[in-house]
Write a structure and sequence with these properties.
The protein is an alpha+beta fold. The protein has four domains: 164 residues, Molybdenum Cofactor Biosythetic Enzyme, Chain A, CATH 3.40.980; 46 residues, Alpha-Beta Complex (Molybdopterin biosynthesis moea protein, domain 2); 85 residues, Molybdopterin biosynthesis moeA protein, domain 3; 73 residues, Beta Barrel (Beta-clip), CATH 2.40.340. 17% of the residues lie in helices and 33% in strands. The protein contains six helices and 28 strands. The longest helix is centred in the C-terminal third of the chain and has 19 residues. The protein is elongated, with a radius of gyration of 31 Å. The protein starts with a helix and ends in a 6-residue tail after the last strand.
């Protein structure tokens, strides 16, 4: 069996960035990764503009911030000033409107009293530049405003619109297909009959894939029959990543490895020296047109096994497909309290992390095995216990795997 680190190396060795594509500016871009630098096609703002509703003035006309001025015009947002502001004059101005020539400050309306064509001002804070955003303060024409490799969030979409980019070259979010298997599995809305369980793996893996930046496609539940499993596997192989849960061990009805082989999937490893998740399978199937191969993960049916295998193997692969740099979620942490644990393989045990000064501390949470999904509720990390029968004393330094989103 491969060690976890060796299996991770195999997975990442077959995962490569998806090809860039041109995509329209829309919410569908969320989570995509920019494949190009983006420059501004204009100065922003394109003119000196007012930050407040108020009056554009010459600060030198106000001694101690006080004085009475003649109002020569009113400028609304979207309008252009027609008149300059001369000595003893002011322009009534709205937020976002261009500053008229001659003015060097804006006094907010709350510090003024207007009557007919005169305005009295009392604002001791007035000085040149007050309440004005100068031209190009946010960005200059030709300036790089977004770098290749940036993950597209709502603010990136807003900035792309600001600089006139109706389309952008991006590495798309990978398509992730999720297929649950087993005669005993029913959907969450159903009441399980004798010997049946609800499908927790499907919704959980979809959520993990979404958190990792994938676009999800749920294929449902394949029964333990070749005529049920084969067409759903073939459908899933059209995605960038196919996740199957269940059917990967050595039982009579564990059909997944054979069906994958018949579908042209090359198994890169099957079984890893770890607990939970030992039966995990990873394979690839080539695609035409130079596209990266479909990555296939056969995950164990026990929910915690599926969860842990996703975090260790699938999440990093999705990150690589998105064109993002590899990240190392492991850290070293000191055990908070004594913990006795016996295991025949390295075990990724649910845990809670704390920070003390600049050091991590870890506490194992109560958990009774790979079927105990509820035991994950209080975790935000996995602590790695080495094989053997050990009493791990408080203060022992252990490896931990931090989860992407912190506490679940």
């Amino acid at each position: 069996m491969l060690a976890v680190s060796a299996a991770q190396t195999v997975v990442l060795g077959h995962a490569r960035s998806l090809p860039a594509e041109s995509a329209a500016l829309s919410p569908a871009l969320l989570g995509a990764v920019l494949a190009e630098e983006v420059t501004s096609d204009l100065d922003v703002p394109p003119y000196d503009k007012s930050m407040m509703d108020g009056y554009a003035v010459r600060s030198a006309d106000l001694v101690g911030g006080r004085g009475e001025l003649t109002v020569v015009e009113e400028v609304l947002a979207g309008q252009t000033p027609r008149l300059s502001v001369g000595a003893g004059q002011a322009t009534r101005i709205m937020t976002g409107a261009p500053l008229p020539a001659g003015a060097d400050a804006v006094v907010m309306v709350e510090r003024t009293q207007a009557r007919d064509d005169r305005v009295h001002i009392d604002d001791p804070s007035v000085q040149p530049g007050r309440n004005i955003v100068t031209r190009g303060r946010e960005m200059r024409c030709g300036e790089v405003v977004l770098r290749a490799g940036a993950v597209v969030r709502p603010q990136e979409i807003g900035l792309l619109a600001t600089v006139g980019r109706a389309r952008a070259s991006v590495i798309p979010s990978p398509r992730v297909a999720v297929l649950s298997t087993g005669d005993e599995v029913v959907e969450p809305a159903e009441t399980p009959g004798p010997g049946q369980i609800r499908n927790s793996n499907g919704p959980m893996l979809l959520a993990q894939a979404a958190r990792a930046g994938g676009r999800m496609h749920y294929l449902g539940i394949a029964r333990d029959r070749l005529d049920s499993l084969r067409p759903l596997v073939e459908m899933g192989l059209q995605a960038d990543v196919l996740l199957l849960s269940g059917g990967v061990s050595a039982g009579k009805l564990d059909l997944t490895p054979g069906v994958l082989q018949d579908a042209g999937v090359v198994a890169r490893f099957h079984k890893v020296e770890m607990k939970p998740g030992k039966p995990v399978l990873f394979g690839t199937r080539d695609r035409s047109g130079g596209a990266p191969p479909t990555l296939v993960f056969g995950l164990p049916g026990n929910p915690v096994s599926s969860f842990v295998c996703f975090e260790l193997f699938v999440g990093p692969a999705i990150r690589r497909l998105r064109g993002l740099p590899d990240s190392d979620p492991t850290a070293s942490a000191v055990l908070v309290e004594d913990f006795t644990f016996r295991t025949d393989r390295p075990t990724y045990h649910p845990a809670r992390l704390e920070i003390s000064g600049d050091a991590w501390r870890v506490r194992a949470v109560p958990w009774f095995g790979s079927a105990d999904l509820r035991g994950l509720l209080d975790m935000d990390a996995l602590v790695v216990f080495p094989p053997g029968d050990h009493r791990h004393a408080a203060g022992t330094r252990l490896t931990v795997v931090r989860l992407e989103d912190g506490r679940l």
